[in-house]
Write a structure and sequence with these properties.
single chain, 2 domains, 10 strands
Length: 164
């Protein structure tokens, strides 16, 4: 468009209109980008709300023995070593889980023991996370391989602790 023949006032007016059009287009593009971002955020929120977000599922009541998955169950010791003075203790936590990795509630757990290891039962029946807790100590310097049983079945995973 040739505006060299237009008076100066019209040129300024036309320039202002072009600037308004450009800023209007920028505003529309910005609004569309914000709308897309909000829609993406909403979609991501809906997706993640439907996902499992806990590491340990809560047990929901007494579960039959056949629902205990021995291959998913495990023992955990902390610390792994202690002084062999009969006073210093190692905490043994046993997790009894089902096939989905959820805790099995209300199952008695027994910690197999060497006669040289003293076992104090803190919580011998599993809680809502499938957890049973024991403290062990010893006066004899040695490494011990501890195992647990639930419903007269041995959990295949064992834990090694040391008393020095």
């Amino acid at each position: 468009m040739d505006n060299s023949n237009l008076p100066e006032k019209d040129k300024v007016s036309q320039s202002k209109e072009l600037t308004k059009e450009r800023s209007s287009k920028k505003g529309i593009i910005l609004a569309l980008l914000i709308l897309l971002l909000l829609l993406f955020s909403l979609g991501a929120t809906i997706f993640f709300i439907n996902q499992r977000t806990t590491f340990f599922g809560r047990a929901t009541g007494s579960i039959a023995v056949e629902e205990v998955a021995l291959e998913n169950s495990y023992l955990f010791a902390s610390p792994l070593s202690a002084q062999a003075n009969g006073q210093e203790k190692i905490r043994i936590t046993v997790f009894i889980l089902d096939s989905q990795g959820k805790g099995v509630y209300d199952k008695p757990v027994f910690l197999g023991q060497d006669e040289r290891v003293q076992v104090k039962t803190i919580q011998g029946v599993t809680d809502n996370l499938g957890r049973a807790i024991f403290d062990v100590s010893s006066k004899t310097v040695a490494d011990y391989l501890l195992e647990a049983t639930v419903a007269n079945q041995l959990i295949p995973q064992r834990v090694r602790v040391s008393f020095r």
